[in-house]
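re: ur msg from earlier - yeah i can do the flavin mononucleotide complex, just paste it... oh wait u already did. ok heres what im feeding in:
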Amino acid sequence: MEMKLLTKRFGMPNSQSIDTYLATEGYQALKKVVTTMTQDQVIDEVKKSVLRGRGGAGFPTGLKWSFVPRQSPKPKYVVCNADESEPGTCKDRPLMEYDPHQLIEGMAIAAFALGAKLSYIYIRGEYWYLIKILETAIAEARERGYLGKNLFGTDFECNIFVHPGAGAYICGEETALLNSLEGLRGHPRIKPPFPAVAGLYGCPTIVNNVETFTAVPHIILKGGDWYRGLGTEKSGGTKMFSVSGHVNKPGNFEVPMGYPLMKLINEDCGGIRGGRKLKAIIPGGSSVYIMTAKECEDATLDYEGMVKAGSSIGSGGVIVMDETTDIFETTFNLIHFYNHESCGWCTPCREGTDWLLKLFKKIKRGDGTTEDLKIIERICPNIEGRSHCPLGEAAVWPITSAMKKFREDFERRVRKVETVAAD
Ligand SMILES: Cc1cc2nc3c(=O)[nH]c(=O)nc-3n(C[C@H](O)[C@H](O)[C@H](O)COP(=O)(O)O)c2cc1C
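and the outut:
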């Protein structure tokens, strides 16, 4: 069963407006931090909550915030990563569309904790229709005294601006995002230094996902321990999952961390379409290991549970494939995507994904051989761990796992060619 925390205002009339927000505990958490808490207390509460970043990597949010050198004389920045370009993932969109103030409040709390006056929402270009919603909400918050100067009669100042990207997957990678925000080409930067120390314009910057920020007001209002208690010991709270593919009721679902994957599929999503059998799931967007139906059986949707089951939670885009799916075709589509989206800066990713795509095309048109499968297997480890940013890994993980776990779908393609050649 879904647990509505971040999504509790979805479906309310005028859920976007500040009046709805204020009538449902809105901006109470911001008031609490600004008027009664210290920066350290806010960070400690977020640490206690075991909130882990919802953008894909699952890094503990409170810990990330504690890396910001607050004594540094440089300005600090808070940046919301609303690029949401991961295939299969569309959870940040409704969070911004139906409850923009929840995001604004979460960002303002982060800005208080870190001492940032200026914050940005970097939103993917294709979400152009959300820009107006966010800007209207920001204007409302400013008018009512929840953004701007001297908030709640203190010297705390908080300003938020929306910055649209141009629609490149790589601009979701946090350092490429910062380059893009600075007006540079969206190429990833070398880490370290991490953005918490040297981010936007070389200043301390926190980059968090939309969903991560929206959890923060709840943590402050009800306490870090309460939030952690909703989920598991090491994965606190609830998480949104975007389920797509061969289920009867695809969509976004908010469930507590630790929720069984198959319960989500069979109960919340109404099971596999047409009563067919499950063949595979890519659970974390598309940048993670593919799972067999067997691996899905006991998998739980928390960071440790998914690793135990042989994959990762990633960004929470659950792509479901029934028994009619040809996994070769699935991976073909993915390598097409990653090759197109590789920024081209580093050789392993640029050349490697290009070479992989060529081999996949060769196999698809019926000219592939067993040797080509072996070449694919040799190329993958030359991208993984050698590319400049994790886009290279994202490209390789679904392929290597698919070739291992669904070998027959690959062998079938080349066997046909080799049988004809032998005749
Ligand atoms: C190629 C690539 C694309 C990414 N795209 C996104 C994205 O669209 N949204 C997002 O929040 N994080 C994305 N990330 C992860 C970010 O780099 C970063 O880890 C995240 O924004 C941190 O926020 P969090 O700690 O709240 O998860 C991407 C990473 C990579 C390598």
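cool cool. The chain has a mean pLDDT of 96. ping me if u need the other ligands too
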